Amino acid sequence: MKLCLALLLLAASMFIVPPVLAADSVVARVNGVDIKQSDLDFAASEVGPRLGSVRPEDRKRILLQFMIENELMAGAGEQEKLDEAETFEQRAAYHRRRALRDAYFDKNVTGGVDEADAEKVFEENIAKVKPEQEIKARHILVETEDEAKDIKAELDGGADFAKLATEKSKDKNAEGGNLGFFTRGQMLKPFEDAAFALDVGQISDPVKTSFGWHVIEVQEKRDQELPTFDDVKDPIIGQLVVRKAQSVINDLRSNAEIEILDPELKRSMDDAVMRGETPPLPEVDDGAEN
């Protein structure tokens, strides 16, 4: 699905702007200019996507720092009379249109998606998911098949698996040979096939992989827990917002008159449509008779 334009439009709005409270508290003051909670909320809609890896407890502090620096530069710009520059009105007009676009996006895109929509998607899809089996196993890894056969014989004779693993296994990262739980697709295929074929408590014959020879014991089998709604809520809402953005843009395009007047840009746009990267522009009625 070609969502390039929707993603581009979404980039500055992935974080839903919280509603501005009636009591809009002042959180800081720079050279006598108030910075309010609502300023932080709007800043979050602008720079939020760049804070995806930031801890929640640090987010507000970083947003405040952004607003302080913003105000310092804006104040310096006023002192230098940059608001009287020839291009300032064009810049202000652009940002006014951006602000209108953001307000429209908040109302009709992010405002058109809520947790109930996401929960419905979750319930519809989780019902189709079959829990994947995972096993807990341990192994002893050695260089040769003969070494592996000797270890298997010792284990069959009652030797302690963890002790043998500590003494003889090449895999020193697995304490006592313990590999923890894993599902299919996480291990080398010969190892995986042998491990999943074992019953709990059963010890394998020597198994060869590119690392050497393994002797494997399965300790536990269980169905992997399915994710809860809270685990996947944010990604689902993000996907729904992208879809909603695409739908809204398509509706707006279908009722708009869009003319590309620059010949080179028009060729580029037409080429993008042919490649499926951009939706076709609606036809403009030029008043000519059929």
Description:
Helix 1 (4-10) crosses helix 9 and helix 2 crosses helix 3. By secondary structure, this protein is α+β, with helices and mostly antiparallel strands. The chain starts with a helix and ends in a 16-residue tail after the last helix. The protein is elongated and about 90 Å long. The protein has helices spanning 4-10, 37-47, 56-79, 88-108, 115-126, 145-156, 161-168, 189-197, 229-254, 263-274; strands at 26-30, 33-36, 133-142, 178-183, 207-209, 212-223. A 4-stranded antiparallel β-sheet has the order 4-3-6-5, sandwiched between helices. A two-stranded antiparallel ribbon has the order 1-2. It has 2 domains: 4-120 and 233-274, no CATH class; 133-223, Roll (Chitinase A, domain 3). Residues 1-22 have low confidence and may be disordered. The chain contains 10 helices and 6 strands, in the order αββααααβααβαββαα.
